[in-house]
């Protein structure tokens, strides 16, 4: 069940994305919206799938890993499996890539277009077990709204 907090955030995201057809601009504002609305985060951003690897996209936070191989780390696993990864303690995740040593928990949600992963939304926290199931449900709803807003228009360029 989606909470009122995430319902409100979803309405804000839809308004923010309404009429926007530039993927980079949408990702930049979307990551800023989440970074501003959620507490206890140290990184929010996107990685775009290009040539069988994830490449850094718009984000809020410290300097990040530029490229992540598919299947590696939390982001690469989310992209290769096409499933959300909600990790309570990233240091216990086999193959975790430590772009920021301050990150202790993470949630990564695939961004889909035509049933294919095209990017991931990565959110990190310095706290252990920061992301609950209610966060996952709410954030997946936000991502669904993002996908509908951007990919309903055939002109959106992913390169």
What does the model show?
The chain has about 160 residues and is of the alpha+beta class. The protein has one domain: Beta-Lactamase. The protein contains 4 helices and 6 strands; from the N terminus they run ααβββαβββα. The chain has a 6-stranded antiparallel β-sheet with strand order 3-2-1-6-5-4, sandwiched between helices. A hairpin with a 5-residue loop joins strand 2 (about 55-60) and strand 3 (about 65-70). The chain is globular and about 40 Å long. The model has no long low-confidence stretch (mean pLDDT about 95). This is Putative GAF sensor protein. InterPro entries: FRMsr_CS, GAF, GAF-like_dom_sf, Phosphatase_reg/MetRdx. It comes from Shewanella sediminis (strain HAW-EB3).
